[in-house]
User: What shape does this take?
Amino acid sequence: MKHRTLLCLLIAALISVVATVQAGRIEVASTEVGDYTRPTGKRAQVLKVVPHMAINDSWRSAVMVRNNANRTIAITMDLLNSDGNLAQASIFDGANENFRGSSFNLNLSPFEIIVLEFDQILTGEANLQAFFYSEDFDSEYSIETTYSSFEGQTKNATVGVFTDAPGPNFLINVDQRIDSYSERRKFRGMALTNTSNESCDCRVSLFDAGLNGQNFQPLVTINLNSIPSGGKFLGITYDLFPSIDQLLGQSPYGYLEFVCTQNVSALALAFENGTQISSSIPVDYFSFAQTKDGETVRKFRK
Assistant: This one.
């Protein structure tokens, strides 16, 4: 009888240990690299994407995932390179525990925050993307990505960026190209991830600041073609519009309108030449709507 009781206790303890391992806050789901197959069904319907994470001697990236619900939720994070293929990275959590893989399961208790600090890209890429999936009823979570600039071991600045749900149409502001105080050239960097299963084309239009209602029509429009499924465009405003200084003329400000054939997750950061200072730039998603008078207008997310 005593042996049977002891055996039952041992089995219960083992079950408890296994359950704890399976329900860990962070689990390595896969270490595979190469071709990426998007999840199907409900998991493909709830998606948030961090388009760019720099991990090198000058820049470090971290992701904060917060559960906004009063219940436990499960999220999967897949790491992709710029071409949309699975890539491996080494990450640390807030308790300094190390995880290595290409896909991770995150289990968050009510209102919990998990911090993922990216330490190294193990497959040789210069930067990564992170795709987050959850079930329909597990969509109540938020993602903030922080970018920290370094000189040696000294951190110069950190900027945080909120990750919104992707969409096909969005606006990004354009700042003055020469800073009026530092007199340094300023530029804006963008990462655009195609979150769909099909190739994506975008029409990009440059508008001025709209003084006296002058920006009803764009100054110029270009086509940004063939961003592959899961792939991204990474560049600056001068890559899209090399003559932007001449196009905007005396107006120091303006904005870019992106109209894409697929849903896109966009990130924008501002820089100055010769410094590590950066700031995040809002990305405003919208849809087109018709007024009672038949006029086409932009309808922005609330």
